[in-house]
Design brief:
The protein is of the alpha/beta class. Among the domains are: about 170 residues, Endonuclease Chain A (Endonuclease, Chain A), CATH 3.30.870.10; about 180 residues, Endonuclease Chain A (Endonuclease, Chain A). Strands 14, 18, 19, 20, 21, 23, 24, 25 and 26 form a 9-stranded mixed beta sheet that branches. Strands 10, 11, 12, 13, 15, 16, 17 and 22 form an 8-stranded mixed beta sheet that branches. α1 packs parallel to α4. The longest helix is centred in the N-terminal third of the chain and has 31 residues.
Amino acid sequence: MAAGKWILNREISWLAFNHRVLQEAADPAVPLIERLRFLGIFSDNLDEFFKVRVASLRRMVELDIKAKKLVGGNPEKILKQIHQIVLDQQKEFEKIYFRVIDALKRHNIYLIDEYSVPKEREEYIHKVFHDKVLPALNPIMLEAGKPFPQLKDKSIYLAIKLTSKDPGIKKQYAIMEVPSSEVGRFIILPPIGKKKYLILLDDVIRVGLPDVFSIYHFDDFEAHTIKITRDAELDIDNDMSKSFLEKIAKGITERKKGQPVRLVYDQAIPNDLLDFILRKLELDVLDNIIPGGKYHNFKDFMKFPNIGTRSLEYKSFPNVHHPAIKKHVSILKTISQKDLFFHFPYHPFSHFLDVLREAAIDPYVKEIKMTAYRVAYDSKVMNTLINACQNGKDVTVIIELQARFNEASNIYWSKKLQEAGANVYFGIRGLKVHAKLLLITRKEGKKTTRYAGISTGNFNEETARVYVDIVMLTANPELTRDTAKVFKFMENPYLPVRYQYFLTSPVFMRRKLYSLVDRETKNALGGNNAWIIMKLNNLVDQDMILRLYKASQAGVKITLLIRGICSLIPGEKGLSENIQVFSLVGRYLEHSRIMIFCNDNHEEYYIGSADWMTRNLDHRVEIYSPVFDEHLKKELKEIIDLQLKDNAKTRIITKKLNNPYKQDGKKVKIDAQMKMYRLLNNNR
């Protein structure tokens, strides 16, 4: 079967996913402050999309790479599609933003601009400007014959037009970075009665522009926001005298000078000022030039302050203490008796830290090995491993230096670990290490016992607050043996390794997944029960999709929960009519990967780190682990059943990519994430 029209383009599908985030911002059932924060998430997502995916498409066009099969279409046409979709979403974004800002007024919260500052607070604004803002400003005068300043990625700038009523004074242009990181994007004003006020830093600067340019004789100042997004691909040089760590560090520095892939600007900007900027930046027809509203860098709205009541935010829920974790009882001993799941963010991440901390001080623990893909900036995990080194443990960390946008943090902690005496490996040449594994080796009398942590997500306390992930803790020798083999492969990549139970990339996973899907196909053709249920972040790989189409044609019932990109088209008669695809986007980011295969009613369960993308299956170190414990299988089935019953946050994925909400006609709304919290709370 030719893929062709039966494979959706991944970039267009990703934009549909980000639209689901925008739907959360539009949803009146979501608290108002959270709606603003979803606008921030949408904006932050889009920034990364341009830095990575759009930048890659641009490179293909510029290098004239024939990439139709690689990207599912002509790169130039896809770029035009992206441009139009982004413009449409930008219009929707602006409407949602103003609706939310208006709704906040009903709660006596006012986000004001430089034109609407109450007279009672004008003096306060000027004081804030002179005391906090002005010292952080560095205006640059722009002249035709001078080089244009290097604009930073992730920053916003005010492009300023300065004019005078005096015809003898020529207009001038200037540019100035908005110092959000130093001052903060939101300035909270003292309330007036019941009314509470905020103003954006951008507008405080606009108020103070006459003072910034006081040495000139201008009397009119127009300041409009612009923002540049740069290609984020790391160009790693081939200098053999440098270590891999040094090359990555240099690549991070060079990334700041990457080619612009998008310019967003206030559409009210004067044409002459915009033309001047475009000429200086040398932007051409391939570049995405996106008109927008007065404000940009909405990622800052992810931290929008709540100056109102708690009802304007999600109700906070205390973490659910895992019933198996007992005070003053060894966690390793508990794990030796039965396998456990930690469900983040419902369970506290401190449970995982407790496992590491116990291993770090236990005199019978000899070795600790762990993979690290995205390391938190202030990582308690890394500090605990350093403590283990100081306690004489043999600590090995496989740290992935090429985890995009986490390189600097990973470099920092790799140096700290090396200083403490840990064995630090930087993965395998040509392969990213994406598997999430922990292995603890303990001497117990005359025998050695291993304990494994197998996770669907990063061992990262920051993301564990909002990412829905599962960590399986086990002392099952069949699983710990395979875990040890993965570490052996990563430490000695040229030695052959065979696994008994794990599905591992880059060598064995694809073949095993083929056989699992084909077994269901064979069972369906033989009249036996056959179904597949999977929860993934992304489904893109064409060969895997074609395998699922073939299974559907044989009668296999396939239910997919795909949070992000889905290149498979469900519900097509004669092709995929037995496939349903849903996407759940809600308060937390669904990140766990779960696979369940019917196997003629002898169900097989797997959890792992890999999405069904070519990069995960062929170009990364990944694992899926079977789940053997019957209680844990039941937990996984409960999770999936809950999510399939969700009628509050679930969208149906269709060929049109229009994200209709799942409507089951029931009056009672079922929010799977809140149900999951209550389920775990009741099981304590």
